[in-house]
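The data are set out underneath:

___
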Amino acid sequence: MGELFDRDTEARGERWATADHLDTRCGRWNLQLQLGRHVFDPDNPVGIAGDTVRLGGFATPYDVAGEGCSASPTSPTTYRGGLDEIRSQVRAWNVKWHVVDLELADAVRGCEEGLLVEIDPSMPPAAPRSLDDCFNVRELPGRGGIRRTPKANLERALMADGVPPGKGYQALSTEAGLDRTFRALTRIKPHVRWWSLGEEAVRMLETGRVTMTTTYKRAHL
């Protein structure tokens, strides 16, 4: 809930959104449903419609409906055996399935082809909790996405290396601090995919090319 300020008329409209979530089980079935509703009600000048609102996002502005509802139910997936669908997803960098119940022969062949990833049942996968995790390749293996720019990345590298946030620029003003920064960046270099536009970061997540990424604020997933 908040306001929409019109710079030309100095009028103030309003915006709000709400969502309901359902997660229930019935036998072996798990039903998940999300219902959402949003309203953007700008106080536009006479003659300017308010049915859509353009939101700015660096190089990628986008239009949203002024008012709308959404529903996101899960749908069951039918697996018919074999490796064709799994192989297709992996080769397209668009993996949609996380766990599949395979026949032993298919599991062995999938491992030999590099289509499957071993899961250690004693070590549940860690989840990224902060920006520092992009630099923690030991506990969070896999590729991470980082914007191709020195801006902020130098500071992030120092903080991930243990420098307190308030001491970052003081450290960067010294040769020792710069050396420490580039050592931290060198450590993660083999594990990084660089992006330049916000939609690239989102696409890399969608296709499984990275397990986590920095993004612009509106693109966080």
User: Anything to note?
Assistant: The longest helix spans residues 175-188. The chain has a mean pLDDT of 78. The helical segments are 84-91, 104-112, 153-160, 168-172, 175-188, 198-206. Residues 2-73 form one domain.
